Amino acid sequence: MKLLRHVAAIVTLIVLATMVADATDPGSLQDFCVATNGPAGVFVNGRFCKDPNLAKAKDFFLSGLDIVRNTNNPVGSTVTPANVAQIPGLNTLGISIVRVDYAPNGGLNPPHTHPRATEILVVLEGTLSVGFVTSNPNNTLITKVLKKGDVFVFPVSLIHFQQNIGKTRAVAIAALSSQNPGVITIANAVFNSKPPISSDVLTKAFQVDKSLVQYLQSRSWWINN
Amino acid sequence: MKLLRHVAAIVTLIVLATMVADATDPGSLQDFCVATNGPAGVFVNGRFCKDPNLAKAKDFFLSGLDIVRNTNNPVGSTVTPANVAQIPGLNTLGISIVRVDYAPNGGLNPPHTHPRATEILVVLEGTLSVGFVTSNPNNTLITKVLKKGDVFVFPVSLIHFQQNIGKTRAVAIAALSSQNPGVITIANAVFNSKPPISSDVLTKAFQVDKSLVQYLQSRSWWINN
Amino acid sequence: MKLLRHVAAIVTLIVLATMVADATDPGSLQDFCVATNGPAGVFVNGRFCKDPNLAKAKDFFLSGLDIVRNTNNPVGSTVTPANVAQIPGLNTLGISIVRVDYAPNGGLNPPHTHPRATEILVVLEGTLSVGFVTSNPNNTLITKVLKKGDVFVFPVSLIHFQQNIGKTRAVAIAALSSQNPGVITIANAVFNSKPPISSDVLTKAFQVDKSLVQYLQSRSWWINN
Amino acid sequence: MKLLRHVAAIVTLIVLATMVADATDPGSLQDFCVATNGPAGVFVNGRFCKDPNLAKAKDFFLSGLDIVRNTNNPVGSTVTPANVAQIPGLNTLGISIVRVDYAPNGGLNPPHTHPRATEILVVLEGTLSVGFVTSNPNNTLITKVLKKGDVFVFPVSLIHFQQNIGKTRAVAIAALSSQNPGVITIANAVFNSKPPISSDVLTKAFQVDKSLVQYLQSRSWWINN
Amino acid sequence: MKLLRHVAAIVTLIVLATMVADATDPGSLQDFCVATNGPAGVFVNGRFCKDPNLAKAKDFFLSGLDIVRNTNNPVGSTVTPANVAQIPGLNTLGISIVRVDYAPNGGLNPPHTHPRATEILVVLEGTLSVGFVTSNPNNTLITKVLKKGDVFVFPVSLIHFQQNIGKTRAVAIAALSSQNPGVITIANAVFNSKPPISSDVLTKAFQVDKSLVQYLQSRSWWINN
Amino acid sequence: MKLLRHVAAIVTLIVLATMVADATDPGSLQDFCVATNGPAGVFVNGRFCKDPNLAKAKDFFLSGLDIVRNTNNPVGSTVTPANVAQIPGLNTLGISIVRVDYAPNGGLNPPHTHPRATEILVVLEGTLSVGFVTSNPNNTLITKVLKKGDVFVFPVSLIHFQQNIGKTRAVAIAALSSQNPGVITIANAVFNSKPPISSDVLTKAFQVDKSLVQYLQSRSWWINN
To answer: What is the pTM of this model?
Structure first.
């Protein structure tokens, strides 16, 4: 019996120890719910919360969004997120931000969607050509050239992009209406999924022949966000 | 004064007459809100409602979802919607359905997203290869072959498709979790927007050269939903 | 100590093993949240999620909705659900479907409500008389006869029914705007709750005498959904 | 032309004059949205708002909830609502209250549901037997006797009732989680809709013969809320 | 092996035993979700649920809201809550109530906000002067004197108060549109936080000198709700 | 009759002309709903929408967020908003941003709440001392010193502030989880409402004497946001 009691105590410790990291929600039901993991292997829609009495200022804090990022990659841009994965205090609060660095002469944040967020972007440096495309049947491209201090809105789930059309680097801060907005980069999802989408699907979808689809699938993609 | 009273009466009639068709909402605040137009040129998020005391059975009704559709088009599929545009009683109620017909030997409902809806599909006839791709960074393709009576789920905003891999026509009924789910066909939004997305953006996004992008943009697209 | 380490390992296995089945949510905060159980005896509003990296196509799949059901029961109908209980991938996604089979000559899906869902129904076979009743004070019956290919909408929480008025069997597919819509069959909830509602309540509510209430309570009810 | 200008002015007045009364919403997007009518014949999901700068204290006010109501009616109860129809300031705010008076010796608030609200009730006077029934398949009756100062909760959309089991009158205040909760009195909706539900439906639903259904339909119903 | 089985059984008991107290949600996804604790140290946004099959009438019940409270404290009022902390059945259902007792001659429920709820109040006894202040830039005070039977609405998140201006005690019942509405008493949050807000902030915010801020911070505050 | 037709035409023009400016909503039911006014004097919860086919890039655009603002005012800060009032395309999309300029040596964004938004702030320049206070009963101050590139979160509805503690000016960009977040500056709402809150309320709330309350009320307040 004594052994069993020891075992029980250890089990309690294990259970507590395994509870260190993962759960958000669609609206806060309390002042805040700082994200943390639940028991190992247990997940909820969003993230579990830290004991609210243990919340600290650092749970609501992140540094380094002023650091210029390396954009030496195929698309010429780098996205630095500040969402619930980086700032656990954002859990359940429905907002996050990102810093985007764009290489000079064409650095591109390629066409993508955020399945759970509208984006509002402010240019800190440089000149961007930005746009989004409306849904069927119109597929209207709404586009604009932005300079320092300009603000633009990309409505939730619509395909959008930004490209640096200046000769110097560009930087933007963008806010997103979710603590976990998600990103679907069109080129990656369509031509570089794992496993690949059948070339029968893609040849008919893009009205091209199979060799071209295979060429598109063979390009090496870069996930910048 | 008498003339003016007549005018007033006529004006009231005109105002009423112009109120014949356009407005939904994120959750019903009453038994139902049958969609109708508001005053000419006035729009709300969703649609205006018909006087609830004038609601009729036909406002909640549509016929013809049993009719086999012509799929003689480039992608080999036709989507027949039954959403708030066809059934005004769906307004504010958060659901709709579609019938999809697929041509034999490859008829395709090409890669697309619904910005405001999850889809659940049941096969009535034929054999479909279906799939959806998860968001970054994994871009996992979740795929399955479906036969008559099989059901599959496409989570909200993810890129998905269905292709008839049988030698006979296929038919499915799919339900969507919005009265106005929206459709973004990837090929159309990316390569056939009006005006077109700059080829500078697309060459870098797909890591191909400009002539290939122009070729992709020159293909004639078919909006089947 | 070595024994205890073994015990600890086993405990971890047990904890993981017991996590195989139970938790949804009002809107997805991630691509999807495939339902699974949490630790034994632990529940959340909705269901816990499977590790998203372990999601498989079968989590989004169900077969057999083409199979004709036996309707040899008192009400002459059978409802075959495809909700989060059958398709764990529906968790948090706000939609589900059902197949309903109706016996010839009066097979009835009796008056009921869905506390969390609007229903949209399409007739695959046969002829149905359907209806719903608006709330107080009007209690208007909105009713329609439906044939193959006809679609009808039953707004959330309103009492509704379908009856086969043809001489052959009837079949419908209906979609519901919740992954867990719930069903309250009026006759069962009012006259066959466990324990029964006091006959004092029912005699006054229905303005009849106690023997009639007792007769109504003595009828054997059939839960077909 | 001068006449026309007069007409135009009058028309403007008419349009303004007809805007005096009808529109709520699922969450306030501003401090408040005091309900008012929109243009004649124009409706939205919920109600239009008064110009916020014209809001007055009386828009948020109602008097008389202390007045004892007459309960001399077939069910022996009277519900006095204080929702958006009585207090326009409640529009978009998601809450309302009612006063319920119960006659001595059985005064009944008969089995009903609120399609859009949970109810929490506090007894001011008397002794009530209350209950609600869970959904299929269990249909469990959760029931309790309440005295002065007792509080009870009736979850959204579930069938519930209260009966005065004391020899003196009873009074309760109940709050509902909607500015327009709606009421479906089961007896009225099932046996006294306009037009009536087909007796074929009701005989099969309640497993009784047609004459009994007709008897139930012939009882005169009383809508007390 | 037998020992290990015993250990496993005990572990299960421990896990169950530690699950006794804490989790709500933004909308019920089932009939109800009676609040309970999850595993020790594990929290979700809101509260975990009790096994729904174990729900009892007492989970939806509270007594004693008729008891007159002692208001012998600095502000002269006492708030008695009936929210998810007192009635676990309120979890996920979006509503709660409070009783407020006010001392004669000025008993005050001091200026405060509910971050997650609109309040609707009915006066049971006495005479209250109540008010709320709109947001910037107007900061309009909407105020009214209430007598027995009067009802008033305080919109979500706005600063509001009630004061007994009669010579006898006053009592009110108020309903709130959340199971966990939260309270921020302005005086306490601004002048008595732990640790205190820097006097540099407060001197500039209130345009007064530091000694006055320190005097305000030195007053002993009373949290009555 | 001809005259009347002219009148009708003019009336239509008038109605159209008066529809130029005012209505948002809690979630977009379409790609976007660019804010505009409805008919004169008619309001909805949020704003009316422009005809979606007339949406232009400028509806989603604002310039000038790079311009340094004058902070020569009593609190030493200036808030420059970019919400639905400045960018009509933000309507229904649940997000907005602000630029805040802080004077050197103590420039303060004084204690305030946003009734409908969480805020996430990134420092572009300078050094800020920031904080928020949790709700009752703890009233814990969560505080942090932020430098360039640092990010901090202020949860929805909690009282918060930022003060420039450096010797040079400071600048921040902050995002808010609403297109119309609202601001309640505590000092203004409590001590400078129109009309003023009764000094009886304030003397008891702050536990000070009437002359001190009158002094606090006599200070001239500055609304900087």
So the answer is: 0.89
